[in-house]
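User: Please write out a complete single-protein record containing the residue sequence and its fold in token form, without commentary.

AI:
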Amino acid sequence: MSTEPSYESTLRELATDQGVLRYHEAGDGPPLVLLHGSGPGVTGWRNFRGNLAALAERFRCLILEFPGFGVSDPTGAHPMAAAPGAVLRLLDGLGIEQADLIGNSMGGIVAAQVAVSHPGRVRRLVTVGGLGTNLFSPGPGEGVRLLTEFAERPTREALVRWLHSMVYDPALVTGELVEERWAQATHPDALASARRMYGRAAVAARTAALAASDAPPYWATLHRIRAKTLITWGRDDRVSPLDMAIVPMRTIPDAELHVFPDCGHWVMIEQRAAWESAVLAFLTRKEAP
């Protein structure tokens, strides 16, 4: 594409029975839904705007803004619990029977959950870090602990510490990025969402609930995914260390793992060209007869 798609030209709204979903749309072709991660000041647009031009040359790209992060209407549910339903409401509202899904961190977990519960809706699945469980590294990772610090005491300094944990190259943490993230992170909805997800009380409650539940954790259900899957990871990820990739790589029946060097948690940003090349090759690969 000759020009980068703009925020205003791509922004769309979809009225649903649980409030308005906002998303960005660009390109023609098979549908490709992009799902953002969590963290202070996150939006789908900020996660994937740099990749939109390349992906929209081959796909109808739909960047969903999850409820509870200050862009789409909140549903009242925990943001992680509301997210899979939001994906299905987007697909249903746009009349899309099946799509490819790309999910970054939390978005990858959500995409995997949709692929487990509604296998017919997902053709191919791409995840970016975050999927699985710590096997050798201590959990939670450094970046998640810094998220808790920010949720408890949201300051610019805490935001900068968290941003530095996200990347391999500290030069990516520019003043512009900090101010952009700070403005979104201090939105009342976004702050409430951060506390519900990463505040100390929320983390303790979630840990206790998991210990008391007979339901398996989501990563123990990954063997039920039927979509061809590409797991992408930064070798130097300090949010979700690389050993987390082992369980999904081994248990998803048709999964491949691509690890990018000199790269933190934001693979699609920090290794943009290499990541886009690998993802496009995977998504456009012909099915074997």
About this structure: The CA atoms of residues 41 and 184 lie 4 Å apart. The radius of gyration is 18 Å.
